[in-house]
Amino acid sequence: MDTAVTAKKKWWAGGYSPFNVSYGKLMMWYFLMSDAFTFGALLIAYGTIRFSSPSWPDPNEVFKSFPGMGHAELPLMFVSLMTFILIMSSVTMVLAVHAGHMRDRKAVAKWLLLTIIGGFAFLSCQAWEWTHLFHEGAWWGRNPFVNADGTQASTNFTNFFFTITGFHGLHVTSGVILNIVILANVLKGTYDQRGHYEMVEKVGLYWHFVDLVWVFVFTCFYLL
Amino acid sequence: MEHTHTAAGHETAHVDSSTKTIWRTFWILLCITLVEVGLAFLHLEYGFLPRVVLNAIFVGLTVVKAFYIVAEFMHLGHEIKNLIMTILIPLLLFIWFIIAFLYEGDSWKNMRKDLKPGTPVETPKVGPAVKPGHV
What are the TM regions of this chain, as residue ranges (chain B) (predicted)? Predict the structure, then answer.
């Protein structure tokens, strides 16, 4: 984006976008800001309840399984893989945006496709994790895990876990759908006709935001 | 919006064709995640670092990761200052939200503990206002 804002340029005098971005991109930013407050509210509610509880389940005891590894205790390994997948798909997305600046249709399509595959990989991982926890007896309203100090845990732990990772997974799902729509347009040549690939940037912003939220979910549920 | 001039159609002329900063950001994010997981394992295996210090490090590193995603991947660091401020200043509310709500949660925990049925009632301590000699 053109950032050469000289002192003489009158951004607020009309004729120019005052923030040097298009309307759509600006509104995407404001939407993401409101979405940040939604996720923030959920995570702060989780924090409040956790602070008000005398004890809480140890995440390293709950999230210790890995597909195909049986009962081996591997805390953090699976969620690290999920984090890696999401960061990687963020990189392929930013490369797609970059290729869009070059108006390189083939490269945009390639990187977008890889982003979509990354999104599906993440969702598959989450589906496995949810299924695994479900079979261990965890669900909304059911919590088979005990607190770190050995006392009986309330269902707050599972309720917050499934609600927040579920809400995040829903965002990933809609992100994947948006990416597929944009990929179809790229392949059709819509953005070549339009003269720019800004739609790729807009869905890119959304996709990075999903990655950003995961960074916080990862910390709040698995590390702390 | 037809007459609004945006950079979208005019930027191809001077676009940096290298992807160096993208990959640099990727390695930074990956390394921070590996450090976090590594510290968590050191704590699990050897009890390295007290829990409070570890949590402070995790929160700090999370904020660093968030900065790199927003500034580089979402390109906010390269937008003009007014736009950055309209995004960041409202988010400052989070500082107060977090302090207020966590304080509230902690207060509830203490009340539940102190006011549980069967807890012996503490005799109220005599405050400094009714100290003998000052009456």
Answer: 26-45, 52-71, 83-103
